[in-house]
Each structure stands twice: as C-alpha cells, then as structure tokens.
Specification:
The chain is an alpha/beta fold and about 325 residues long. The chain is about 35% helix and about 20% strand.
C-alpha cells in the first residue's frame, strides 16, 4: 500500500467498506480512483481498482446496469459540461433550447431523474451538455457527484425569480461536501477540503421573471469576482451569449490541419486545451505522430504565414498547421 494516500482516499475507502449495494461500491471505488494522487507509486493500486470496478460492473443485474449507464456518460465532442442546480431552475429547458435532445421540461420540481446528454453546436464544433437531476438542499442521486467529477466544466443554474444567492451558496456547499471545488484551485491543508476543481459558469435563469434585474445584479456582485455569471431566459433571451460563454469557459483552442499544397478543412478542427503545443496537436492527430514529427509549418499566429515551428511552439485558436514527419 503506497504510503502517501490522502485523507480523501481514506474517507472514500471507508465509505466503500460500508457500502451495501454493488452500485454504491462501484461509486466508492470510482471516488477512490478520482481522489488518488497520480504517480508511479499508485499505478498498481489504480489498476487494481479498475479491475474491481470492471468485475462489479459485470455482476450487475439489468436494472442496476441501466442506472450504471446513467452514471457514465461517454464524452463526445470538444468538451463535456454538466448542468447542475436546485429543482425547477430550468436545467432541462437549457438543454432543450441549446441541443437537439428533448428532455422533459415541467413546472414541478424533481422532473429529471436520469442524466441525459445533448450536443450543442458552437460555430464549427460540438460541445456535450448533460441535463442532470436536481441537486439542491436534499441529497442528490448518489451517482450524480461522479458525473460532476468526470465533466470538463459545470453550469450552475439558479432561478432569478427566487433568491439566487441562497441557491448558489447551497449548491456550492453541496459540491464542497463532495470535495468538488469550483473555479480556481485553492490549496488547503484542511482534511475535507475540495480535491477536484471544476471550471464553472453561474447561470441566473428566468431573467424574464426578475423584475428590473435586481436579483441578477445581486448575484453578479456576490459571485462575479470569482466566477463568470450570466443572465438568461432559457425560453428565449441570452442563448447565444450562453453558447459563447460555455465555449470560453472550456478554455479550448481550435487548430486546423492541412497537407503540403492542400487546403485545410475549416469545418473540422482539432480541439486542444489552451496552452497546448504543436507536439500535443500531433499526438491528437495520431499517437505515434508525436514522436515521428520533425517540424511543422504554421499559418495564423506565426509572424509569417507558413513559418517553420518546433514541437514546443504554443498554438493559438484558429492556427493552421502542416505536420512533417
Ligand atoms: N419564465 C420562465 N420559465 C422557465 C424558464 N426556463 C424554464 N422555465 C420553466 O421552469 C419550469 C422548470 O423547468 P425545467 O427545465 O423542467 O427545470 P429543471 O431545472 O430541469 O427541473 P428539475 O428537473 O426538476 O430539476 C418549467 O415550467 C419551465 O417551463 C425561463 O427562462 N423563464
Ligand atoms: Mg430537469
């Protein structure tokens, strides 16, 4: 057993020992994996946990297997964004308005019971949104924090016709209880401090019911220094701004490839984390290419079009590259 396991890991392991159902056991094992420090000394243990998860997953009956499927939504597109918030704030309406998915939208709370993905188009890329069951005062579906941990970013959706600050505070507290922090990573020696930090955007929804915008202004002044905040009416006002803000939150760049003498396909970019290098782009084209590539030519952020750059060159959104092995 590696010596330097964290208190978070030890807590998750304790939950695992107390878990009753197979699904709960799987969730605890996944939590152990997600909070385990990543280094050589834990490789063996990680593999061990993965084997256990696979074995337990195979042993599930049909109903539990369906629930298990709901807790693992395969990533698709340029980023995965989980939409969370208290009941009835309009999470499903956002997915309905931004994607082709058609989740049930209803005037009563606790409408959504499963996680439902949909793809949102932004310019020439697709971003995956996941409509989630509510997470407010009550304990969430037990698998919900797992999806949140795995997502690339979060939308925190609150209702501007109610007290949006109280809703946001409650939600952030719930997240922190699961060791999920939002915004910039904060280092802490507290035993139960967050270990997973997520990019997040606060969405004040139902702006049409926020008379004079007073609730939105209060929300913005309370959280605006920490996180991006936007005002939305998911039934028709501010949707384009929301698309843009989701793209910006993901902090990704789009890079296009071309062959010598050819033209780039501007409709089909590679997406990479902001700050990625030419080598990262080559690896994403093909794993072996990272090593094989000798140099590349670049159009866009280079001073001269077609200039030669090395593998550690940092790429910008919109760059066109021609890779040479
Ligand atoms: N006026 C107004 N109503 C909205 C807006 N967005 C959603 N609603 C309404 O709010 C109610 C709840 O919407 P849902 O999308 O089902 O909310 P939810 O957050 O998914 O609810 P749960 O799944 O129960 O957590 C529905 O009656 C919607 O029509 C909005 O921007 N303005
Ligand atoms: Mg819903």
């Amino acid at each position: 057993m590696p010596a330097n396991l964290t208190p978070e890991y030890i807590a998750a392991e304790k939950n695992f020992r107390m878990a009753k159902t197979t699904l709960e056991k799987i969730a605890c094992l996944e939590e152990m994996l997600s909070v385990m420090p990543k280094h050589k000394g834990t490789d063996h243990l990680r593999a061990d946990l993965r084997t256990k998860i696979a074995k337990l997953t195979q042993s599930l009956d049909k109903k539990s297997a369906t629930q298990r499927a709901s807790m693992m939504i395969e990533k698709s597109g340029a980023g995965q964004v989980a939409i969370i918030g208290p009941p009835n704030t309009g999470k499903s309406q956002i997915v309905d308005s931004l994607t082709k998915a058609t989740p049930t939208v209803a005037a009563y709370p606790f409408t959504t019971q499963a996680a439902t993905p949909g793809m949102m188009a932004f310019e020439n890329i697709q971003i995956q949104l996941i409509d989630m069951p509510p997470w407010g005062e009550q304990a969430p579906e037990w698998w919900l924090p797992n999806i949140v941990r795995r997502a690339d970013a979060l939308l925190l959706v609150v209702d501007l016709s109610q007290d949006p600050i109280a809703q946001t505070e409650a939600l952030v507290t719930r997240l922190n209880e699961k060791r999920i922090g939002i915004g910039k990573r904060v280092e802490s020696t507290e035993e139960d401090a967050p270990v997973n930090f997520k990019k997040a955007l606060i969405v004040g929804n139902k702006s049409d019911l926020d008379e004079g915008g007073a609730n939105y202004r209060a929300l913005e002044s309370r959280y605006g220094g920490q996180l991006p905040v936007i005002s939305l009416s998911a039934i028709g006002q501010g949707l384009d701004e929301l698309r843009l803000k989701i793209f910006q939150m993901l902090d990704i760049i789009r890079v296009y490839t071309k062959t010598p003498g050819g033209k780039p396909d501007m409709t089909d970019p590679i997406t990479l984390d902001n700050g990625s290098t030419l080598e990262d782009a080559a690896i994403s084209v093909h794993k072996d290419f990272g090593k094989k590539m000798k140099y590349a030519r670049i159009w866009g952020s280079g001073k001269f079009d077609g200039v030669m750059v090395k593998r550690d060159h940092v790429l910008q959104d919109g760059d066109i590259i021609e890779l040479h092995a």
